[in-house]
Amino acid sequence: MKVLLLGATGATGRQLVDQLRAAGHEITALVRDPATADLAGVTVVKGRATDPADVAASVVGQDAVVSALGPRDKRDPVCVDTARAVIAAMQQHGVKRLVWLSAGGVGDSAPQIVKASFVFGRIIMPLLMKHPYAHHAQAEALIRASDLDWTVVRPVQLVDKPTGGAITVVPIGGAKIGGLKISRHDVAAWMAAELTSRAQVGTMPVLHA
Questions:
Q1: Going from the N-terminus, what domains does the chain have, and what CATH number goes with each?
Q2: 181-183 and 97-101 as β-strands: parallel, antiparallel, unpaired?
Q3: How far is CA 21 from the centre of its chain?
Q4: Residue 12 Cα to chain centre, angstroms
Q5: How far apart are CA 91 and CA 59, in angstroms?
Q6: What's the Rg (C-alpha) of the chain?
Q7: What's the pTM value of the predicted model, to 2 decimals?
């Protein structure tokens, strides 16, 4: 598949580059500064994921869009602005498949995180993560309301070190969430596989190790 990857230079995005390349996909990365991207085997295009014109130009000719974007600071609305630009561009150019990285505890997954960890669910999320989670929720709402073939991925805390390699996919209202950490590598591998398996189209599952 021809895939437009957003957030390719981030920690999870670089893992996605490796996973998508390993699966044989042709990757285009939209980045702000191509000179610092250093993405081997990737077509790098200069632009901003929040700019509708940049995104629309990059979506042309793609089969799917994968986003691993996250906020640079707590009040950064990048996820909301990017969701608007991506949805409009995909609808304009007839691209249907979207795999989007969000976070465990966003939206209707909050009660499951609260059950798994009182401290994280009742203290950290509402006090320290209030703004980024609100932005994630707004982006999710935009995606849910679209007519795209979307999958929104809600991992628990992302870490760089391995967390076992096994991933549990928990639907909303499903089984109790176990571990509260999961490796970026494993999430990237799951997202790359979901891109073509389509097993979770139209869902927003929580992922944990």
A1: 2-208 (3.40.50.720)
A2: unpaired
A3: 17
A4: 9
A5: 10
A6: 16
A7: 0.94
